[in-house]
Specification:
Distance between the termini: 7 Å
Number of helices: 7
Largest sheet: 6 strands, mixed
Helix content: 25-40%
Order of helices and strands: EHEHEEEEEHEHEHHEHEE
Length: 262
C-alpha cells in the first residue's frame, strides 16, 4: 500500500501535473496540500473519472487539503480538534483532514509556515503544532497503523537544507518548531524517510527563485510520520523528484511510503 504526500501549490494551476503524477506513480492514497480551492470548486470529476475517491477540506485561494484514494475513504474528520478534543471553531484555516483507508488512519496536514517571526503567525504555528501533538497522542491509543502525512513547514535538522545559514531566522528552523516535531518522534512516531535513508540530502522543496531546483538547493519539509503499528510494516520510503522537473511544477515534490498491507 503506497501512501504519498504532495503539496501541489494550487489544484487549478497544477491539475495536469497532478493527474499525470497519479497515473504514472499510481499510489493507493494521495494526501494533497495547498489545493487553494473551496470544496465546491475542487475538480472532483477529473479525479473521479480516473477512479479516485475524493475528500477535501478547502478554503478559497489559500491552504486546503485533500485525500484521494483508490479505496473507500471512511470516518472522515475535517479540521484539527482543540486541545480538549472539541472542535476548534475559531480556527478557520483549512489545514487538516483525517480518514481511514483499508484500516490505516491517514491525515493530510498543511502545517502553518509561521513567518514572520516573532509575531502572531509564529504563535499560531506553535499552537497548531500543540493541537497536532494532542491529536497524535490520541491516535496512538488506537493501536492501529497511523500515517501523519503532509507539509510540516519544519526543517528537522540543519542537514535537511542546502544552506543552513540562510534559514537561521526562519520559522521553519526555530528551536520551538523543531522541539514540537521531536515531541511527535518521542511519542513513537517514526520519520519514515530517515528510517530508510538515515543520512544525505532528501529534499522535498525547492524555491522557484535563483535556480534552486537546477542547483539542488532544497529543503526537507514534507514528512510522513508513522505510528509504531505503521512503522512495523514499513517497506520503503522515498522522495519522488520526477514531478519537480516537469513543466510548470509545484515547488514541492511528492514523498511516499510503502506499507506491507494487502
Amino acid at each position: 500500500m503506497k501512501i504519498a504526500t504532495f503539496n501541489i501549490n494550487g489544484v487549478k494551476a497544477r491539475l495536469p501535473r497532478v493527474l499525470e503524477w497519479l497515473e504514472e506513480f499510481n499510489p493507493d492514497v494521495a494526501c494533497l496540500q495547498e489545493i487553494k480551492s473551496i470544496d465546491e470548486n475542487f475538480p472532483r470529476l477529473e479525479f473521479e473519472e480516473k477512479g479516485w475517491n475524493v475528500e477535501t477540506h478547502g478554503q478559497k485561494s489559500f491552504n486546503g487539503v485533500a485525500i484521494l484514494s483508490k479505496h473507500p475513504i471512511e470516518d472522515i474528520m475535517r479540521r484539527l480538534p482543540d486541545l480538549d478534543g472539541s472542535e476548534c471553531e475559531e480556527d478557520e484555516q483549512a489545514r487538516y483532514i483525517e480518514a481511514t483507508v483499508k484500516g490505516v488512519r491517514v491525515a493530510s496536514i498543511y502545517l502553518p509556515n509561521g513567518n514572520p517571526r516573532p509575531g502572531p503567525k509564529f504563535d499560531y504555528k506553535l499552537s497548531w503544532m500543540d493541537r497536532l501533538i494532542k491529536r497524535a497522542e490520541y491516535l496512538r491509543t488506537l493501536e492501529i497503523p497511523v500515517v501523519l502525512a503532509g507539509d510540516y513547514n519544519v526543517i528537522p535538522f540543519d542537514e535537511d537544507c542546502h544552506n543552513p545559514a540562510a534559514w537561521t531566522e526562519d520559522a521553519l528552523t526555530q528551536p520551538e518548531s523543531r522541539a514540537r516535531l521531536r515531541t511527535l518522534w518521542n511519542m513513537g512516531y517514526t520519520d519514515s524517510i530517515r528510517q530508510i535513508t538515515p543520512r544525505g540530502p532528501m529534499y522535498s522543496y525547492w524555491d522557484f527563485q535563483r535556480g534552486a531546483w537546477q542547483k539542488d538547493h532544497g529543503i526537507r519539509i514534507d514528512h510522513l510520520l508513522l505510528s509504531p503499528q505503521a512503522a512495523d510494516i514499513l517497506k520503503d520510503a522515498k522522495v519522488d523528484r520526477i514531478p519537480r522537473g516537469k513543466e510548470k511544477p509545484s515547488d514541492h515534490t511528492p514523498v511516499w511510503v510503502e506499507l506491507d498491507i494487502a
